[in-house]
Amino acid sequence: MLDGRGALRRRAGLRLWLSAGWQAVVMLAALFAPWLAPHDPLAQDLMLGRLPPFWLPGTEPGYWLGTDSLGRDVLSRLIHGARVALIVALVAGTATCLIGSTLGLIAGFYRGWTDRIIGRLVDIWMAFPPVLFAILLIAVLGTGLSSVVIAIIVIDWTRFCRVVRAEALNQSQMDYVHSARVAGFSRPRTLMAEILPNVLPVIVALLTLEMGIAVIVEAILSFVNLSVSTDRPTWGGMIAEGRIAIHHVWWVLAFPLAALFLTVLSFAQLGEGLRDRFDPVLR
Amino acid sequence: MAEALFRVEALRVELPDMTRKPLFGPVPRLEILKGLDFEIPRGAVLGIVGGSGSGKTTLGRTLVRLMEPTAGRILFDGADITHLPDAAMRPLRQRIQMIFQDPMSSLNPRLTIGRIIAAPLNATSRDPRVAEALGHVGLPAEFVHRYPHELSGGQRQRIGIARAIAMRPDFILADEIVSGLDVSSQAQVLNLLEGLVRDLGLTLAFISHDLSVIRRLCDRVIVMQTGRIVEEAPTEALFEDPQHDYTRELLDAIPTPDPTVRW
Amino acid sequence: MSAFLEIRGLSAVLRGTDLRLLRSVDIDVPVGTVRGLVGESGAGKSMIGRAVLGVLPRAVEIVEGEILLDGRDLLAMPPVARRRLIGARTAMIPQDPLTALNPSRRIGRQITDRLVDILGWEPARARSRTLEMLAEVRIPEPERVLRLYPHELSGGMRQRILIASAFVAEPELIVADEPTTALDVTVQKQILGLISELQARHGTALLFVTHDLGVVAKICDSLSVLYAGKVVEDTTVARFFEAPAHPYSAALLAATPRHTDPASSLKPVPPAVMHAVGAEIAAADRSWRPRHG
Questions:
Q1: pTM
Q2: Domain locations in chain C?
Q3: Contact B184/C251, CB-based, under 8 Å?
Q4: What is the pLDDT of residues C51-98, one digit of tens each?
Q5: Cβ-defined contact of B110 to A197 (cutoff 8 Å)
Q6: CATH of domain B44-65+90-248
């Protein structure tokens, strides 16, 4: 028995380290982009256009991952693009999580009319097609990073609300919650001290998932040119540009796609890894 | 005779019956408790017995005010607590404690034993009362660092008892606290409870479906069937000379560990 | 008379480890008798029942021993033949009548499906046999009950359905895993009476897993007391309740509540007994070498 759990934990540990490592790389890139990027991500030089990545013939020194059709350095654009991705993941993910989880906890724990109101709101909210909703919102708010963040929050809080509500409802029927009442604790204290720690693993898992989703949503909005303006490199924007020229310069599409994929995957893995490691019940 | 610790008068509890909810219109009400009258004298150990659906668990939860009575009165130590709001109830909570059936679900799985016992005391797990409570239930003080899932079923149930007695209550409700345990832990927990009731002068209501356990522990027994009290008697009398048919049926159905006794 | 079910030297470990879950278990269940498997939680009593039915969880690995059903070793058979043999000649009565029936299918189909699809009966024959069986477990209006869904019946009724379903194909062995633990005592008495009656009438061999020595006294002919996956006592019911031979089983019996004699029951198991039985198992483990394959 012990052996089985040990092996499970080792695997979880490796997964945790790999995803945390990739997250660290993205984080460093985002923080120190101006210093790390070898070139200006916006500098165009048609003489240096369509340079392949370093392991292919016909490269120029210093352009590790090649250049796009306009001669912009792909690596520098990737590094700068990490900024947008990370801001969206952290800000939009956290805010979505806070709003959705709070409402979900309240609805699931207090039940009654609060639950009915929040529940109806979620139902109505979810009846809107999300992508259309986002596009409409940005049409109203105007493009820009803050609009993207707001759009993600507005669309995705329901995801947290529903799952957290169900879990809080589930936990509030456990006897340890009754026992807290018998002990004389107030309802808000019971919610914070008894229910929250038990719902937290679910919230953390959802949060990391949501961070990945936020990055994807931003990329989708960039792809349809509704995110930040084109003078700021984003992974989604790069994918959109790379798609057009995929036959000549596949690397313009491949590298941002890989970065996006790894980032989203590592968010999800980070969530599971954290849970396996820090949940006392699973330990 | 001195005033009883608990006095229950014409207690009724109704719940909405969701299984029969019509598509439109009000939810029908299901009557769980149909007018109960009884007393729990100070220092008594009262057994409450009945089958599933008899309302014994609802009665317990109503006594400790986890459920709201529909009608009737509950007096605790002379004070009417029937509809006391949460805030007014809180000072009394310390005096009315409960031990739950399933020690796994009644101990918050993400807190250490120390915090579980200390929290209701508004203390830290280093508070001497925590170690004292653990000592009362025969567990070492080192247990404060453990988590509930690291303990055996019997140990968990003893933590449930420790949490209740740490508050120095006047009254403890024990709801089917040994029915999930192995017989060896069951005997241990019952002996422990018996000793604590005697040493700490507790008043105990002991809900169980198992009459053999009730016989061992209680001085009075209430037999419940479908929301009514069908018989109330001192334990000896109930076992020697049961008056109600349902009581006799319950007694006959106990599988005694003796193959020579015909069933 | 040879036993219909014979378990010989059955040992199991947690897959991939040396942790022993069953320790050279020997159990016989002759035709027409009831064998109780008694022990506390974690003693391995349910595991033995599941091993016989071939439904062990993947984490449990049998490392040696034989499970002989009518003289044929289940463990030495190819999986398909084993499944067919188990399906045709055994049945089980599960513990929880609430989850053992599929909530979204009618009672009738849940019983007849196995007869038609696995045993290849004509649907009409399966139906008439099922009706017969429902009458035998004293279910009123069997025709109507066949069309009901499980939630429309009480817990006791559902357990009757499961008993009918176990006996319907005339199995020679039934494994009952704590079949009355979830029921009220009054219902338990009826259900145990029913199982006893059907077992005697059909001459079935019954392996009855329970934690309750009271139930053993009422329904079994012989019993095996398990501790940590080892049979510490194998005896007849009459002899056991007269004078249990092993100190652990004696302590278990003294811990069992007995309302007719409250003073001498519910005795905690003395620590010395637990030490002794623990040492006995450790000693057995030291001399044990698994014969793999």
A1: 0.83
A2: 3-286
A3: yes
A4: 999 999 989 999 999 999 999 999 999 999 999 899 899 999 988 877
A5: yes
A6: 3.40.50.300
